[in-house]
Every structure is written in C-alpha cells, then in structure tokens.
UniProtKB/TrEMBL annotation:
Protein name: NADPH:quinone oxidoreductase
Stored NCBIfam families: quinone_pig3
Pfam families reported for this sequence: ADH_N (PF08240), ADH_zinc_N (PF00107)
Keywords tagged on the record: NADP, Oxidoreductase
Domain Enoyl reductase (ER) residue range list: 10-323
Natural source organism: Streptomyces caatingaensis
Gene3D superfamilies in alphabetical order: Medium-chain alcohol dehydrogenases, catalytic domain (3.90.180.10), NAD(P)-binding Rossmann-like Domain (3.40.50.720)
PANTHER family the UniProt entry points to: OS02G0805600 PROTEIN, QUINONE OXIDOREDUCTASE PIG3-RELATED
Annotated GO MF terms: NADPH binding; oxidoreductase activity, acting on NAD(P)H
C-alpha cells in the first residue's frame, strides 16, 4: 500500500508519499480500507519530531480514519467485511489501509457519507471525554472553549449546546466567530482584540466559566484560573502556548476549582474503548438526528498532506481538514 511517511522530522515537506507494507490485523483488531483521514495538531507535532507514537503504535501519522472493513482479526465479532466505519487510532491513518483495535471502531452515523465520517472520531472522543466525562458539564452551566473555530472547538460548541449549556468561544477574527455563532455559541470573543477574562466577566455578571476547554496551555493558565467560576473545572488538552507556567493555588482554593490535563493518544486500550463506547451511546444519536454535525473546512488528496499541514499550521481553516485516498 501507499502511505505518508516521515523519514526525517521537519517541516511539511518532511511528509513523503511512499510504498510501505500492508498492516495485518492481530487478535481483536480490524483492517480498514481507508477512505479518508484528518489532520490534527498532534500530526504536526509528530512530523516535527515532538510527539512520538505510543509503544506498539504505527509510526505513520494519522489519529483517525474512515473507510470499509477489509478483514477481521481473530476473535472479532459484531462486525463484517464491507461495513462502513470510522475509527480512533494511535497512528497509521495517513495510509491506504489501517489496523485498529475493535474497541476503537464506530459505525458511520446514519445520514453521513463515509468520507465526512473521518472528521468525527478524534474530536468527539476528545470533547466527550474531557468536557463531559471528566469536567462533568451540566445543563445551564457556562463552557468556555478556546479555539472555537478548530475541529475540537466546533464540536465542543455543538455538544455543549445539545445538553443545554451556555457556550463562550475565543477565536481569531470575525469570520471564525460568525461560524461559531452559527453553530450555537452564545458569547463570542476575538482573542486578538479582547481579553477573554474581562469579556466573560461582563456577560456572566462576574461569575465566570464553570468549565474551560483549553488548547493553549501555559500562556493561558493564570488567566484561565481567573476566568473560572466558583467550583469551576479547567481541562487542558493542548500546549500550543507552552508547557510551563506558574499556578496560583490560592485562587484555586478560594474558588474551590480544579485544573485537569489529559491526553487521548497515549491512554490504555481499555480507557479508549470506554470513551469510544460512550461516544457511540451519547454522541452518535445526536449526529444521526442532525443535531450535531462534523464541520469540514476542505477535503484534499492524501498525497497533498504537506499542503494540508500548511493550512492547519496557518490556522486559516474552520473545523477539520480531511485527506482522501481516492
């Protein structure tokens, strides 16, 4: 098969289209003939040599894919060759074929085509596991989403609104903010021109956010704590603004607040399977019913992965950038 490889870490041109051996499904695994994959920030970090795959995972980039089942490994039941599926991966999505543990497999939701389904696994698993399973966002609470125009951001807005929460977003520029408003965001903050702590305080009467989903990390840590409500929960899932910062524990104590940080890719198989099962139970009906939808900025050939990485690095997109094998 052909795949995007990374012979030497570096810029987008480090991504090389090459012929590699076909993967073979082992016990409890499924082989997928890939229709599409998606570009995630983790792929950019891996390309730069900053984010190695977990032990035993494919060295190829790609944390999700969609396609059709080509073969079942020993011990797999409940699925059949030819089923249209999408999957959460630890690596290997940038290829014509991929192997995935059966617990990380999802059916393509009703009403969605197999290519568009590639936009779902990583964002739904990330948002559901952090905002709902970890931070326990409840109806009537306020969620602040940093990077509201990203794939994760656009999904977080929709899922939070679906459960009856109020949603604030930060994004750069009027166009991205308007897209967030169309998805249901109630509070729009342009981080280039506005201070999100001040703006959030104005519209919440000084209460702040009950839950914050943060992709920035160190640069926003102190201000995120300032923006938290009493009993607030900060979930850090990215380090785009660095990894080291000072934390005022006194403010956390006074607010009875919590700071949590998680990564999805390196979690044990059992944990990822539990997250995927929760996504299928809670999120898939919303997608099939049309209340939640993947936001796709553009679809490009897998061979053009380098250009797709440039698009994501420039942050000119809204939602997901997909790569197709066809």
């Amino acid at each position: 098969m052909h795949a995007i490889t990374i012979p030497t870490p570096g810029g987008p041109d480090a991504l090389v289209w090459a012929e590699v051996p076909d993967p073979v499904p082992g016990g409890g695994e499924v082989l997928i003939e890939v229709a599409a994959t998606a570009v995630n920030r983790a792929d950019l970090m891996q390309r730069q040599g900053l984010y190695d795959p977990p032990p035993g995972a494919s060295p190829l980039p790609g944390l999700e894919c969609s396609g059709r089942i080509a073969a079942l490994g020993p011990g797999v039941s409940g699925w059949a060759v030819g089923d249209e599926v999408c999957a959460l991966l630890a690596g290997g999505g940038y290829a014509e074929k991929a192997v995935v543990p059966v617990g990380q497999l999802l059916p393509v939701p009703d009403g969605l085509d197999v290519v568009t389904a590639a936009a779902l696994p990583e964002v739904t698993a990330t948002v559901w596991s952090n905002v709902f399973m970890l931070a326990h966002l409840r109806p009537g609470e306020t969620l602040l989403v940093h990077g509201g125009g990203s794939g994760i951001g656009t999904m977080a807005v929709q899922l939070a609104k679906a459960v009856g929460a109020r949603v604030a977003v930060t994004a750069g520029g009027a166009e991205k903010l308007e897209r967030c408003r169309e998805l249901g965001a109630d509070i729009l903050i342009d981080y280039r021109e506005q201070d999100f702590v001040e703006e959030l305080a104005k519209v919440t009467g000084g209460a702040g956010a009950d839950v914050i989903l943060d992709i920035v990390g160190a640069k926003y840590l102190a201000r995120n704590v300032d923006a938290l409500a009493v009993n607030g929960r900060l979930a850090v899932i990215g380090l785009q603004g660095g990894r080291k910062a000072e934390l005022d524990l006194g403010k956390l104590l006074s607010k009875r607040a919590a700071v949590m940080a998680t990564a999805l890719r390196s979690r044990p198989l059992a944990e990822k399977s539990a997250i995927v099962a929760a996504v299928r139970e809670h999120v898939w009906p919303l997608v099939s019913g049309g209340r939640v939808r993947p936001v796709v900025d553009r679809v490009m050939p897998l061979r053009d992965a380098a250009e797709a990485h440039r698009v994501v690095e420039a942050s000119t997109h809204v939602g997901k950038v997909l790569l197709t094998t066809g």
